[in-house]
Automatic annotation (TrEMBL):
<keyword id="KW-0547">Nucleotide-binding</keyword>
<protein>
    <recommendedName>
        <fullName>ORC1-type DNA replication protein</fullName>
    </recommendedName>
</protein>
<dbReference type="Pfam" id="PF22703">
    <property type="entry name" value="Cdc6_lid"/>
</dbReference>
<dbReference type="InterPro" id="IPR027417">
    <property type="entry name" value="P-loop_NTPase"/>
</dbReference>
<feature type="domain" description="Cdc6 C-terminal">
    <location>
        <begin position="321"/>
        <end position="401"/>
    </location>
</feature>
<keyword id="KW-0067">ATP-binding</keyword>
<dbReference type="InterPro" id="IPR055237">
    <property type="entry name" value="Cdc6_lid"/>
</dbReference>
<comment type="similarity">
    <text>Belongs to the CDC6/cdc18 family.</text>
</comment>
<feature type="binding site">
    <location>
        <position position="211"/>
    </location>
    <ligand>
        <name>ATP</name>
    </ligand>
</feature>
<dbReference type="InterPro" id="IPR049945">
    <property type="entry name" value="AAA_22"/>
</dbReference>
<keyword id="KW-0235">DNA replication</keyword>
<dbReference type="InterPro" id="IPR036388">
    <property type="entry name" value="WH-like_DNA-bd_sf"/>
</dbReference>
<dbReference type="InterPro" id="IPR014277">
    <property type="entry name" value="Orc1/Cdc6_arc"/>
</dbReference>
<comment type="function">
    <text>Involved in regulation of DNA replication.</text>
</comment>
<dbReference type="InterPro" id="IPR015163">
    <property type="entry name" value="Cdc6_C"/>
</dbReference>
<dbReference type="InterPro" id="IPR050311">
    <property type="entry name" value="ORC1/CDC6"/>
</dbReference>
<dbReference type="GO" id="GO:0006260">
    <property type="term" value="P:DNA replication"/>
</dbReference>
């Protein structure tokens, strides 16, 4: 077989980045589906143009609804205005994902504010008390001066530790008009905020409702028109009905939009699906992206999501999955809770992990069923136990259990050996 060479292949892509769902790779310049929400954000930011303090804002809604791009579009637009009007404006965007506490957000904020002052490459401060970090933030804000907007994206990551959300809006740095924008896709987080935090941070609140299938069609149409060859809008009207394409069949975008809308109207998921479908076609040297490519992309992405779901399972759920896998190596038949629990207990002893009560163990099995890693057959009459099977291929489960050298890897290895002894 000869190796493919770069550069001499035909492609259906004109600018692949436009269909890339990664926010860092491509940012849309307009969000026509979000006119109302953008106007609400505009209203909260507008005081900045009048020499006053922009309002604090909570932006909430499920994943992939354009919250982050929406805030970026409006803050960029304000920044452009500020540059022209010679207004002193600084916008700092902090992604809180993975930070886990106010402490980490504060250290990051100190680093980001210092970078605004001194340029990139500042270290994260370490070894300070929370209160000292807050003072460092305030001091940096006072050095920067003017109007400062701090965007805390995915603030739910801080969990119960809302110190920063309580203190920062009350900090009153000298010579600064400070505004905070908190973005979250955890609706419960917003509900659970302390009443004081909610009233100071949520001076204004903007809710992003899930996109419906028609909106997703229009979103996909615009991304496709930018990304694919021979694909453009009739009469300059940028909606799905005016899209004309020599590389998409009539069903491709509607199917990707319908599948995207099925879950939570998530634009990122719909874009990811169309992108993967187009790549499948393109990599195979095909010139048309069809419904079949979309279905294949859906299967591929679902499998990938489940694989990474297995790889990142917490210990107890991993042990529960391994106990079910143990039975699956012997037979495809659904297995009742009791024999799974027995197997689980022996794995816990082997790995020296504490053993959950039967009831809590059953909750873990149900968690695995909720995330489509196991199939569950509900016990019918009284006293009949639920039964479980793997919802993924046995090979997929075995391959994605921990590696030999990792935590719980010994048990995973026993299962893999048992399976290869069986098939031999
Ligand atoms: N109306 C739209 N038009 C075009 N692309 C969009 C639109 N809304 C969202 N997107 C795209 O969908 C992806 C997700 O958007 P974004 O990151 O803003 O979502 P989010 O609501 O902040 O999600 P999360 O809460 O998961 O961070 C991005 O690639 C973005 O460009």
């Amino acid at each position: 077989m000869t190796m493919k060479s770069f550069g001499d292949e035909d492609t259906i892509f004109e600018d692949m980045d436009v269909l890339n769902p990664n926010e860092q790779t491509y940012q849309p310049e307009a969000l026509p589906e979000r006119e109302v929400e953008l106007d609400q954000i505009h209203s909260a930011l507008r005081p900045a143009t009048m020499g006053s303090t922009p309002l604090n804002l909570i932006v909430y809604g499920q994943s992939g609804q354009g919250k982050t791009v929406g805030i970026r579009l409006k803050t960029n637009q304000l920044q452009e205005y500020a540059n022209e009007a010679d207004m002193d404006l600084t916008v700092v965007h902090v992604r809180c994902k993975g930070m886990g506490s106010s402490y980490h957000v504060l250290t990051n904020l100190v680093k980001r504010l210092r970078e605004k002052r001194f340029g990139p490459g500042e270290e994260l401060p370490s070894g300070h008390q929370r209160k000292t970090l807050l003072n460092m933030v305030i001091q940096n804000l006072e050095e920067i001066e003017g109007t400062i907007i701090i965007v805390l994206d995915e603030i739910d990551a801080i969990g119960d530790d809302d110190y920063i959300l309580y203190e920062l809006p009350r900090s009153n740095p000298d010579g600064v008009r400070l505004s905070l924008i908190g973005i979250t896709n955890d609706l419960q987080f917003r509900e659970n905020l302390d009443a004081d935090v909610r009233s100071s941070l949520g001076e204004d609140e903007v809710r992003f409702e899930p996109y419906d299938a028609n909106q997703l069609r229009d979103i996909l149409a615009r991304r496709a028109a930018g990304a694919l060859r021979d694909t453009s809008f009739n009469d300059g009207i940028e909606d799905y009905r005016h899209l004309q394409s020599g590389v998409l069949t009539d069903d491709t975008i509607p199917l990707a939009a319908a599948l995207g809308a099925q879950d939570t109207g998530d634009a990122r998921a719909a874009i990811r699906l169309l992108f993967r479908a187009a790549r499948f076609a393109d990599d195979a040297g095909e010139t048309i992206v069809t419904e079949d490519h979309v279905r294949k992309a859906r299967d591929f992405l679902e499998t990938k999501a489940i694989e990474s779901g297995i790889q990142t399972l917490p210990n107890q759920r991993m042990l529960a999955l391994m106990a079910v896998t143990f039975h699956a190596v012997n037979s495809d038949a659904p297995v009742s809770t009791t024999p799974i629990y027995t197997q689980y207990k022996s794995f816990c002893e082997y790995e020296n992990v504490n053993i959950l009560s039967n009831r809590r163990f059953r909750d873990r099995l149900n968690d695995l069923a909720d995330t489509n890693i196991l199939n569950k057959q509900q016990g019918r009459g009284r006293g009949e136990e639920n039964k479980y099977t793997l919802a993924v291929d046995l090979e997929t489960a075995l391959e994605n259990l921990p590696k030999e050298s990792a935590r719980l890897g010994d048990v995973a290895e026993i299962l893999r050996e048992k399976d290869s002894a069986q098939t031999r």
